[in-house]
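Look over this one:
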Amino acid sequence: MRAVEVTALGGPEVLRLVERPDPVPGIGQVLVRVHAAAVHPADLAARTGRIPGGPVPPPFVPGWDIAGQVITVGDRVSGLSPGDTVAGMIPWYLTRGTPGGYAELVAADADWLVPVPAGLDPVLAATVPLNALTAHRALAMLALDAPTILLITGASGGVGGFAAQLTVRAGHTVLAGATHGDDDWVAGLGVHTVLPRSAGLAIDPVPAVLDAVPISGPVLDLAAAGGTLVSTRPAPPIDPDRQVRQETVLVRPDRLALHDLVEAVADGRLRTRVAATLPLAEAAEAHRRAERGGLRGKLVLLP
């Protein structure tokens, strides 16, 4: 099979298309022919070695999110059959490239995958797992029982966009930060107030904050005393006298939640978007575009 390897830690040029032996599914695994693999900031961090737990020694295959077709099924797998279209998240923080998603074939644990409903484009499905599961877990950590006011930074992005929609659906009042020129998209997510980046975060402190960008510093003062701040990366500690609970969200596989999230995208209750698709062989160009920023949606590789 063909796969993209990180051949050395460094810039996009270290990504190379290589031939690797076809993987064989083990116990509890299925072999997936990958139709789409999303490109995430976490992939860029792995390529440069700036990841929790320290760099992964090259060569390795990056990639968290895949969608494709089940080819073969290993022992002790139920609920998935050859021919099924599936999507899922490779927990790359555990696999560290064995496997990774930038490949034509992936031997994936069945528990990482869920069926893709008929009519949902695998390219769209591949944008869901990592970002939507992170948003789902972040909201669980915020523990918003009664309707409240919530600030979400980076609602133009994947995690922030899914989080904004999920909290609106749960009945909360959402103040959402938007990148330059992306106000209409964020407003279309149903949020109460769009905060354009050009205007800054000129709001009073609120009971709950999800720093999904993250931007840390300016956000720390916006969590009201006794409130909660959840961020996607560790943030500096807030003055303990304010009694703000601080948490860092770490994504993990959750098959039940992922099933519901993919279903919600398929039936239009959740929105996601794709900035562009590129062939697998152009993974380096995808990373260059991601580093330049300004994307409206995810880049997706097509093996």
About this structure: The chain has two domains: 2-127+273-302, 131-248. The chain is about 25% helix and 30% strand. The mean pLDDT is 96.
